[in-house]
Sequence to fold (167 residues):
Amino acid sequence: MPAHHYDFSDTHSTQRACLNGHIISNRANDGQPQQMWCSKCGQATIDRCPACEGELQGAPHYSSIVPKKPADYCIHCGKALPWTERHLEALREVASLMDELDESDRQSLDDLLPDLVSKDGTPRTEVGIVKMKKLLKKGGSVFAESARKLLVDVISETARKALFPDS
Fold:
């Protein structure tokens, strides 16, 4: 393991998830054969970040508590993991199909998404929420509903409550 990777092997197992974010195993390094394809969606599974090869952090050793969803970002390099990026890319694609949104709106969306997705929020999360509310209104009901479906599981709790209080 390269020196820049966080070594959690003393405290946690490795997680295996599919490229769409379905958890396959929270104890992928337990010596059992690994499931290489997701039984829910058919996508390939990974146990490492594609960007830096750092292992995905799974369940703590000696605990029955297991993560219910994979991390959104890599703990080693900070890059969005494939499932997070797929949600964001899908929203960008929906935005590109909306005649109500212009190129400036699409760029604004691209700029604000990282602040909404950050697990605990950032200093710019509130700015992102305000901008996203304006885009949801401007984009119309189809864009708003698509955004809700694509973002509700990947945005911070603060952003989710502000943008989609009924979700």
